[in-house]
Amino acid sequence: MKFTFLILYLVSKLPFRAIQKLADGVGILAYCAVKPRRKVGETNLKKCFPELDDNQRKALLKRHFQHMAKLMFEYGLYWYAPAERLRRFVRYQDKHHLDNALAAGEKVILLYPHFTAFEMAVYTLNQDVPLISMYSHQKNKAMDEQILKGRHRYDNVFLIGRNEGLRAIIKKLRASDWPFLYLPDQDFGRNDSVFVDFFGIQTATIAGLSRIAAMTGAKVIPAIPKREADNTVTLRFYPAWENFPTENALADTQRMNSFIEERVREMPEQYFWLHKRFKTRPEGEEGFY
Question: 197 is in which domain, residue-wise?
Fold first, then answer.
């Protein structure tokens, strides 16, 4: 593991353009070599984009592997590069939606789905905005320690262990002026999940966004990171959702999934397709993977 950290440190010394070229090449190699994850991606894309033919989905998945490689190699920048260097690669769009809410003393939940530029954007945002977030401990102790060290790099984040649950999030959000960074779009199993549509597929989705907003009075402000053609990242903030939450948590969760789907369709190669998003199926339905 120390060798991996050394490689990332050395990569962080390269020019940004060179890092991207390296990632593009390694991404294609990974597409060819990492068959289990490629199969997951193929299954996800076939389910979500049946209108595309096999060649189109193959090309999309190859681009996705390149984006994932960019995410991996850029950890050297997140952990080791000067903070001001990261700033050069990230720009904000419509950040006033967040700034105005915080200035007004509003509680804020940043809806932050899993797009591949999410780390680059949040490591920059955390320089400017203190954040509350959740953390899942890694099985490898050295990796866990390094990730936690990176997360606390700016002494500007409060991490809640995923095993601490919803109560810990609500307690901290009520007691703090910091926004809560919320990443809800992964399969966490049947417990605390409801089945709502995502790309026309009944998908196990945690309903925490509606519950947290209801119990804290927090505004939901989506934030979406997009990697541009020059490989820099735009972090776009959307207006706070009106009429949210409602008394119907199922409808609220569907609203969240529909919003995320709309953003994914805008840049499908940048979404997390290598995660088994549809692993948990409704009772009696055959598994996808």
Answer: 83-270
